[in-house]
C-alpha cells in the first residue's frame, strides 16, 4: 500500500495567512543568514552592532545606507514594473549602463546650459534605459523571442560598449585607470549635508510616488494587473494589451536607466567599470520581497542597502567575501518564495493505493 499526496491550490488566501507566511519567510531567511555569518566567523555578540546599529542608528552609517539605497530603489521599481506584466527583465544592469552612458554623453558634449544640464542628463539616462529594453520587447512581440535570454545577452553588449568607451574615446588621459573624465561641479547633484547623501534621494522617492499612482490608481495599473494574470483574458476583455505592455516595460527600462544617471550625477561623477554591479539580482530581490508594491520597494531597498553597507564592514573586519553577501540575499529570497508557495498551495492526502 502507498499513500499519494498532491499539491492543491488554495482558492482563497486570507490577508492574515498571507501576512503571516510573509513574516515567517523573512524570519526564516534572517535566522539562516545569522547562522551563515556565525559559520563564516562573525562573532554572534557583534551581529546586532554590525548589522543594525552601525548602519541604521549611527550618523555616518545611516548616511551611507541612504546613499546606497538610491539606485536600489529604482532597480526595485524597474523589476516590479516589468514583472507586473510578466516581462522577465534580467537586464537591469545593461539598462543602467546605457542610462549612465547617455547621461555622460550629455555632459561630454556640453548639451544644454550648465545650470540645468543635470536635468538633461537624467532625462537622457531614462531614455537610454528605455531604448535598451525596447529591443527585447520588440523581439518578444515580433518573433516570440525569450525576453529572459535577450535582456541577459544585451547586458553583456552594454558592458562591452562601456568598456569600449572607457578604454577608447572617453578615457581620461590624466588617469591610470580606465575611467571617463569627471563631470563639472554644476552638473553634479546637490549634497544634503548628511555624509554623501544627495538630492537623488528625492528623485527616487518621487519615482516611487509616480509608479504607485500608475500601478494603483491609473487605468494602466488595472490593465497591467489583468495582463499579468492572464494575457488571453486581457485580450478577450478588450484591454489594449500592446499599449499596456509597452508603457510598463519602457517605464521599467527608464527606471533602470535613471539609476545609472543618478550614480553618475550624484555619486561617482564619472563612468567607471564597476558602476551598478549586481543591480539586476538586487532589483529582483527587492521587487519580490516588496511583493511588487511600489510603496514597499522603498523600505526594502533601504534595508538591503543596509545589508550591503554592513557587508562592506564585515569584509574588512572579518574577511567576509562578496559571495557571502550575495548568498544572504538569495537565502532571504528563497525563504520568502518557499513560504509564499506554502501559503498558495496545500498538500492533499489522497487514498491509499495498492502498488
From TrEMBL:
<keyword id="KW-0472">Membrane</keyword>
<feature type="transmembrane region" description="Helical">
    <location>
        <begin position="62"/>
        <end position="83"/>
    </location>
</feature>
<feature type="transmembrane region" description="Helical">
    <location>
        <begin position="296"/>
        <end position="318"/>
    </location>
</feature>
<dbReference type="GO" id="GO:0022857">
    <property type="term" value="F:transmembrane transporter activity"/>
</dbReference>
<keyword id="KW-0812">Transmembrane</keyword>
<feature type="transmembrane region" description="Helical">
    <location>
        <begin position="197"/>
        <end position="215"/>
    </location>
</feature>
<dbReference type="InterPro" id="IPR001851">
    <property type="entry name" value="ABC_transp_permease"/>
</dbReference>
<feature type="transmembrane region" description="Helical">
    <location>
        <begin position="20"/>
        <end position="42"/>
    </location>
</feature>
<feature type="transmembrane region" description="Helical">
    <location>
        <begin position="118"/>
        <end position="139"/>
    </location>
</feature>
<keyword id="KW-1003">Cell membrane</keyword>
<feature type="transmembrane region" description="Helical">
    <location>
        <begin position="148"/>
        <end position="170"/>
    </location>
</feature>
<feature type="transmembrane region" description="Helical">
    <location>
        <begin position="324"/>
        <end position="345"/>
    </location>
</feature>
<feature type="transmembrane region" description="Helical">
    <location>
        <begin position="236"/>
        <end position="265"/>
    </location>
</feature>
<feature type="transmembrane region" description="Helical">
    <location>
        <begin position="95"/>
        <end position="112"/>
    </location>
</feature>
<feature type="transmembrane region" description="Helical">
    <location>
        <begin position="271"/>
        <end position="289"/>
    </location>
</feature>
<dbReference type="GO" id="GO:0005886">
    <property type="term" value="C:plasma membrane"/>
</dbReference>
<keyword id="KW-1133">Transmembrane helix</keyword>
<dbReference type="Pfam" id="PF02653">
    <property type="entry name" value="BPD_transp_2"/>
</dbReference>
<protein>
    <submittedName>
        <fullName>ABC transporter permease</fullName>
    </submittedName>
</protein>
